[in-house]
Amino acid sequence: MNDRILLGAIADDFTGATDLANILVRGGMRTVQTIGVPAADTVLPECDVVVVALKSRTIPAADAIRQSLAALDWLKAQGVQQVFFKVCSTFDSTDAGNIGQVADALLDALGEKISVVCPAYPANRRTVFQGHLFVGDVLLSDSPMRNHPLTPMTDANLVRVLGRQSRYPVGLVPWSKVGAGDTAIAEALAALAAQGVRHAVVDAVRDEDLHAIGTACRRQRLLVGGAGLALGLPQNFRDDNLLADHADADALGQVGGAAAVLAGSCSEATRAQVADMAGRHPAVVIDPLTADNPVHLAEAALANASATLDRGETVLFYSSADPAAVASIQQRLGLEHAATLVEQAFAHLAQALVARGVRRLVVAGGETSGAVVGALGVKALAIGPQIDPGVPWTRVLGPQPLLLALKSGNFGRTDFFSRALEMVR
Ligand code: ADP
């Protein structure tokens, strides 16, 4: 067991967990991300932060509470000083949950008076003013989030949104206090707590505000927010002489071996990245219309790449196709079936590639990444250097050296794949 973990985080989805971990590593904290709640006897490497990635954003609230409390128990057993409940920067939830319901449960379990709630993330154009969440220059309720299939956000007033979810009173620390600095914020929080408020939504429109909130929250045990809320936290631990200077907080070491890219996203960004990579390295297409069995699809792709892989060259495997081609495939195979077929093909391919000595793997697509991580039995990842905003290299913790870069479809610049592979050896 590691008894030096300073900050424990519980994230309600996987890519959100990585986003938070990435920010903390860049703040100089050595960070491990686990997939689900680790088993009681899990031994992690020495680190300053553990982010437990759950998939609890849209499951029934009772399940989200149970999983989050299990994560909290595990983190408490590691002796963490502060708990960060990572939610989406667009506060994705419904009145049925899960942010307020989980935050209530964590507050109770920690025996804390008040939580600090702030999804602002100015770098991604999420800001909070007078308790209202803005996406770019429009209110959340006027943004495309109003039409989200699972968590339509039709109210931008977070005090109201959280008030409908929580059993407890919700208050606001307005920007007039936040802009005055950390002492004013701490006083405002204390005043709200004295009035019986148990969740304080805090305004923030600039990174500077988030740093000040971070400083004000030095002794706050429960923070609820987007990754931006973590910006100011590493400095608190440094000021308390708890965090050594880790210039190499993101060091992953060398793994050797071959490299491959698995692109299962059909987003515009990934398609441009695939075209760029195919101009630089051998590329093998995975076409779900050529076989109705994922193992056969994977084997055929592998056979195509065999000679290249034997020479130790990097290979790009992709199923990415333009919207018209995807629509036609979905029409022939059914949407669900096409998706599962391709995801499972990538899962088999990842296993086969690792068995053949591939040690650096870049995966494009959220669902595709989930399938690959599941197939490889990944339980935890050490977070490494950032490739593009929000996407770091990671090292799989386990007996076998393996580096993974997992990106959601729309992330990254056009030369993402080749740049990622040049960063690590
Ligand atoms: P993103 O992060 O861009 O949403 P995902 O991997 O989450 O990417 O989702 C892409 C989905 O599209 C996956 O379910 C994948 O299996 C499916 N898919 C990929 N290529 C094709 C294709 N050529 N035809 C149909 N579906 C595809």
Provide an overview of this structure.
The chain has helices at residues 14-26, 61-77, 99-110, 158-165, 175-178, 182-194, 207-216, 233-239, 268-278, 294-310, 323-333, 335-355, 366-375, 416-423; strands at 7-11, 31-35, 49-53, 82-86, 115-118, 126-129, 132-135, 138-139, 170-173, 199-202, 222-225, 258-263, 283-285, 315-318, 358-364, 380-388, 391-396, 403-407. With 425 residues, it is α/β, with parallel strands linked by helices. It folds into 2 domains: 7-239, Putative sugar-binding, N-terminal domain (Rossmann fold); 258-423, Four-carbon acid sugar kinase, nucleotide binding domain (Molybdenum Cofactor Biosythetic Enzyme, Chain A), CATH 3.40.980. The strands form 2 sheets. The protein has a 15-stranded mixed β-sheet, with helices on both faces. Strands 6-7-8 form a 3-stranded antiparallel β-sheet, with no helix packed on it. A hairpin with a 2-residue loop joins strand 6 and strand 7 (132-135). The mean pLDDT is 94.
Order of strands across the biggest sheet?
9-10-5-11-4-1-3-2-16-17-18-15-12-14-13
CATH superfamily of the largest domain: Putative sugar-binding, N-terminal domain
Shape: globular
Q: What small-molecule ligands were found? A: adenosine-5'-diphosphate
Largest sheet: 15 strands, mixed
Radius of gyration: 22 Å
What structural class is derived from the secondary structure elements? Answer: alpha/beta
Q: How big a fraction of the residues is strand?
A: 15-25%
How far from one another are the termini? 30 Å
Annotation field: number of helices:
14
Low-confidence runs (pLDDT<50, min 5 residues)?
A: none
Our count of domains comes out at 2
Named at the architecture level, the CATH assignment of the largest domain is: 3-Layer(aba) Sandwich
Q: What is the residue-averaged pLDDT?
A: 94
CATH third-level topology of the largest domain = Rossmann fold
**What is the name of the CATH class of the largest domain?**
Alpha Beta
Helix content: 25-40%
What is the strand tally? 18
